[in-house]
Design goal:
Helix content is 8%, strand content 47%.
Length: 179
């Protein structure tokens, strides 16, 4: 039997900065247990589509990151790499949303209401007034999302499958193979 390979050409794909990607965590991240510098993985839970509606990065594509900073009620996450159909690419992205109970987005940080969260942020060198205006420690760091959690005496724990939304801070470019 004769097999013919399809003719393949590559076109450059550019996903513009400010594009929001929706991810699901591949493992649990618990602030009390995770260590600074630990890597984590997530995967796209929605495809990235071009203007014509074609999926250019499919559901299930892997995104890697690492824990930049952590204490019992805070997690700072940095997103580093995405696996596209044409290979791995570095990304710069910031966390802009999370689907978790008692957590809200405030610029580049995620915050939940509660006295203990306010105390922790205050001890990190910011003021409650600064938080209300969106000014928070680490917010100026490129590609980092800080998750704050407080209230109810619960520990910060992101379950496997937690939905995260990240926004690209610079264009993502790669060659797409047509087959």
């Amino acid at each position: 039997m004769l097999l013919l390979a399809p003719w393949v050409n590559a076109q450059e794909i550019r996903i513009p900065k400010a594009t929001v990607l929706t991810l699901a965590l591949d493992q649990e991240l618990e602030a009390k247990k995770v260590k600074k510098g630990k890597g984590f993985k997530a995967h796209l839970s929605q495809p990235v589509r071009d203007d014509a509606g074609q999926a250019i990065i499919p559901v299930g594509s892997e995104v890697k990151g690492k824990v930049e900073d952590v204490d019992e009620r805070h997690l700072t996450l940095k997103f580093k790499e995405i696996k596209t159909p044409s290979g791995k690419k570095s990304i710069e992205a910031r966390l802009v949303g999370i689907d978790a109970e008692n957590v809200k987005v405030d610029d580049n940080e995620l915050e939940s209401p509660g006295k203990s969260g306010v105390k922790k942020v205050g001890s990190a060198g910011t003021t409650v007034a600064g938080i209300a205006k969106g000014g928070v420690a680490g917010a100026a760091v490129k590609g980092v999302g800080r998750i704050l959690f407080g209230g109810g005496g619960k520990d910060l724990k992101l379950k496997k499958g937690t939905q995260l939304r990240i926004e690209l801070r610079k264009d993502l470019k790669f060659k797409l193979k047509d087959g």
